[in-house]
Amino acid sequence: MKKRNSVILLIIILLIMTPGLSANKKNAFTITSITFEGNSVYRSRTLQEVMVTRASKFLSPAYYYPEVFIEDLKNLALFYQQNGYLQAKVSDYSFDRNEEKKQLSISIQIFEGEPTLIEGISVFGNSVFPDSTLMKKIGLYKGYQLQQKKVQDATYTLLTLYANAGFLDAEVVPGIKINDELHRALIDFRITENEQFSIRNIIIRGLEITKKKIIMRDLTFKSGEIVNYSKLLASQRELYLTGMFESIFIRPVTIDSLSSEKDILIEIKEKVPGEFNIGVGYGSLDKARIFAELLYSDLWGTAQKISLSGKLSYITRKIEASYTEPWTFGIKLNTDVNIFATYNEEPGYDVSEYGGKVIVGKSFATHSSLSLAYRYEKVHFSHVKVQELPDKYSSNLNSLTLSAIHDNRDNIFNTTSGHVLSLDSEIATSYEKTTNIFGRLVLHGKYYAPITHTTIIAISLEAGALTLFGNSTNVPLNERFYAGGPHSLRGFNYRKVGPLDNKGLPIGGRYKLVNNIEIRQTIYKALGGVIFFDFGNVWNYMKDIKKEPMRSSPGIGLRFDTPLGVVRCDYGFNWFPKSGESSGKLYFSLGQAF
Questions:
Q1: Does the pLDDT at position 5 exceed 60?
Q2: Most Cβ neighbours (<10 Å): which of 279, 444, 507, 556?
Q3: What CATH number should be reported for the domain whose range is 117-192?
């Protein structure tokens, strides 16, 4: 009964927060549908995306505003024209009104006309690059449909090509001649190359704490080179990624009107390097919690970072000190050194861990990196309730982990597009009474894509395996795989999916597969809703997969985007509960589930 009330409460909150109840909209007509007629080139869904005016959806009513609708009609015609249908227009439109219910449906008639095709492409005024090179860069071809955006893109590509070769004042002017009767177009790109520039001096302004050499080592250009505009932008990005600066502007400046050299001016505004951060929160697992961190991000002006942080909650106590060197031994290798002490109360046991970790990583390309980590821990288990294990025992752990990651997400805290793929391969030794050697392989992928401007699909997949080597017999409890809870299968108790002992306590497993799928919908401003489906399980042996198939958990949730992060409330259903399991779980937490 309590679980049903929780679900009802979620639905009531959704209804209360739904837009459309405000007084300033009570006299407006809600739009029940928008239909298109006469369109064959573009689907109705594509045309709808061009418009601001939308049809109402479940829990998301849309309203008719005449001024906005008239602009939408103009944008529809412009959309066609920019894509080569120069005679296209909105030929007519009509409304079907229900005055009593304050509703209307809209019908829009489209005249598409014939597409205009490219008859020929020419370049004039070039001497630095041959016609063949420029034509490849342009990316437009005879017989292709005339599209204004592609012409603009080709112009920008040519300007970038010249700017990267030092021709900063080059001009590219496209000219389009159209034969309306034959629906054909001729495109001419007229180029004025002007002078090529090289770099004389690199001038840095605004530094108060950071040493000049720290800036210089992240630059991808140097004095005497031909000015390459892409290298200027790449250097600006590298400096931003250090996290030490509020603003960075890199630009060439003229020495005098007769010089073929330019100085490169780097204007920097530094952040205050010292920070003290504190946060409080509440989660279904942690209950009340507090976090504090003392951080200094530019030690001695060398971009080295040090921090001291602590966390205290109902089930966790943790303190950690860390040091980061972004350039190790003068090479662009990032080294992190962490020393920590933690205490966690897990279902079935309590665990204290003391130790350290050293991670050396290297970035490749823009979004990919590789790292090697060494971890040493002294682990002490207490209040062990799991059967066949002593109430207290200790072990030492040494491990080496090789990790590869590719991450192009637009925002790591509240992602709307992109993906991340990581692979961790670990070899570890654990000494209790005897030495156990085990290996761990974990593949983790996340994918995010917008379906509409207010709807996002998010998918997470985690697959892992543990292997014992030689005469090894055991993997420590805290190193095993577990599933169930607010970041896993949300219809189940924390860690209760997978192998359990006779008391119903989780003992973890050696194989894991968990998949999460979410449809995230913006309801009104900062309020969002989620429909999710989680499935997966944990097994001790491969043969157990047939005996214990996947567990599944559909559910619904709310999201509230605050300045401090996303507040999350999820209710997951347990479709086929086993003996002793509830029919669902309600979880509160901070941040997205994944």
A1: no
A2: 507
A3: 3.10.20.310
